[in-house]
Amino acid sequence: MSVISMKQLLEAGVHFGHQTRRWNPKMAEYIYTERNGIYIIDLQKTVGLVDKAYYAVRAAIEDGGSILFVGTKKQAQDAIKAEAERCGMYYVNQRWLGGMLTNFKTIQGRIKRLKELETMQEDGTFEVLPKKEVIKLKGEMEKLEKNLGGIKNMKGVPSAMFIVDPRKERIAIQEAHILGIPIISIVDTNCDPEEIDYVIPGNDDAIRSVKLIVAKMADAVIEANQGAQDNLEDKKAAPIRQDVKPVVADIKPEATQQVQ
To answer: pLDDT tens, 62-72?
Structure first.
């Protein structure tokens, strides 16, 4: 059974592409028809490709990896933040800073500064500083939080990246390609699917459409983490049998010698 239904996709308007004059010919295989100058996306293909992306995300998490959710366009910002936080992953929803992945060590320095400022606010340091200096420090903290708040707990580059609108997130895609990070993305009819490892053909401009797809990717993370937790609990609960003797194979001495 698919993780998403045709009905859900239709109700969210995932099938509405761009005007026919604004399209990328490479998206032809994902287009069902044209209606009133608008391309209609083939949702049967979208259903299957959402499944493929879902299980790719789940596999990455099951392997101990992480997902970075990226969507800086206005229609995506709220969903990216809400769903990434819901599943405990990282996100960028305001501005992609150049080198955010390819120069991650420098970014970590800025994150360290953000955490220092947060500590100063929490431990009362701001209360004993001059008012002008506090205003300046708070302004710095707010700017850092806005741009880096979604990745301040990210220890290294992610295992995969989920993107809303590849045209908008060109720098993020370039950095992911340099580092060999797989990309999962909602790809509208005006985008190039060849840049994306896991294409999800769909409307990347409608808030409901974006929210639906982002939520499904977050669900994949949650399911993977829940499965890992269940397995851990099963191992803890399983009794250790005292009557089982270790199996020792008959190994000839020469078989243990290293190959010269």
So the answer is: 999 999 999 99
